[in-house]
Amino acid sequence: MDGRSYSPAMSENPSRRPRITLGVEVRETPVGDVLYAASADHVLSVHSSAPVRVACPASLSRDVRTRGVLNLVPAGVSETWIDDDAGATVDLRLPHSLLQRAAEDMGLDPDRVGLEPKHHFRDEHIEHIGWAMEAEYRADFPNGLLYRESLGLALAARLLARYRGQVEVRGGLATPQLQRVTEYVEAHLEGDLSLTRLSRVAGVSASHFKTLFKRSVGVPVHEYVIQRRVERARALLLRGGVPTGQVALEAGFSHQSHMARHMRRVLGVTPGAIVRSRA
Q1: What is the full DSSP assignment across 106-162?
Q2: CB count, 10 Å around CB of 7?
Q3: Model-level pTM?
Q4: Which whole number is the average pLDDT over 249-278?
Q5: 93-134 pLDDT per residue, tens
Q6: Nearest partner of 186 among 81, 265, 56, 76, judged by Cα
Q7: Where in the numbering of this chain does the HTH araC/xylS-type domain appear (predicted)?
Q8: DSSP 170
Q9: What is the Cα–Cα distance from 177 to 65, expressed in whole angstroms?
Q10: What is the end-to-end Cα distance of the chain in Å, rounded?
């Protein structure tokens, strides 16, 4: 990775309506594992270098990825590939809120639209957007936020027209939604798991998400996150080799006492008791 990226959260335009813009990262991919960690954004990876031999561990398939080949990783989903050759990609990061805005413009229910993973495909329209964003990146974004927002809406409209996944919300979170959220929680236990962030991963409003999540899982989202953090802390303590205070931070607790309080409540034991049980 060359160290420069543009984040949709960055804004240099103090306009009344906040711009929701398309993010971009131009990165080099080494030989070996290439990870796309679960994110609150949808990610379109555009291969931008010479051909690369690549294997997908999940499907046990092998391909040769040529310039312009695309991979779509929806929000909340993680993907790993194994590259046999070094290469480069242009990664487009599409905020789900921008997908929802495009859905509204297209007459679709923004709370019911989503995207499904799609690997090793070609789409000339998306490819052109990728090269335009790469040019913006390399020129230090001379055309401003409105240009990137326009490209983001064009990308969102294309994805919704060709690669849309339907999200059912009547009884609870749809299976793909719930999977995205739970995978995102597991991948980010040590970080920000606020209601706002998780509702973005699910692709619904925060107030709607609270209700749907509890219907699907049986506990409030805050309690679910605490339970998963407690379980992560328990596993780290049983493994050993890490100080208890560091375990608390890696599991997402603010400090050791915070972890101990929730561990006693959820498991009925203290961190010290778990450490002693290794003996």
Answers
A1: TT--GGGEEE--EEEE--HHHHHHHHHHHHHHHTT-TTHHHHHHHHHHHHHHHHHHH
A2: 12
A3: 0.61
A4: 89
A5: 998 888 988 998 998 888 778 898 899 999 999 999 999 999
A6: 76
A7: 179-277
A8: S
A9: 29
A10: 43
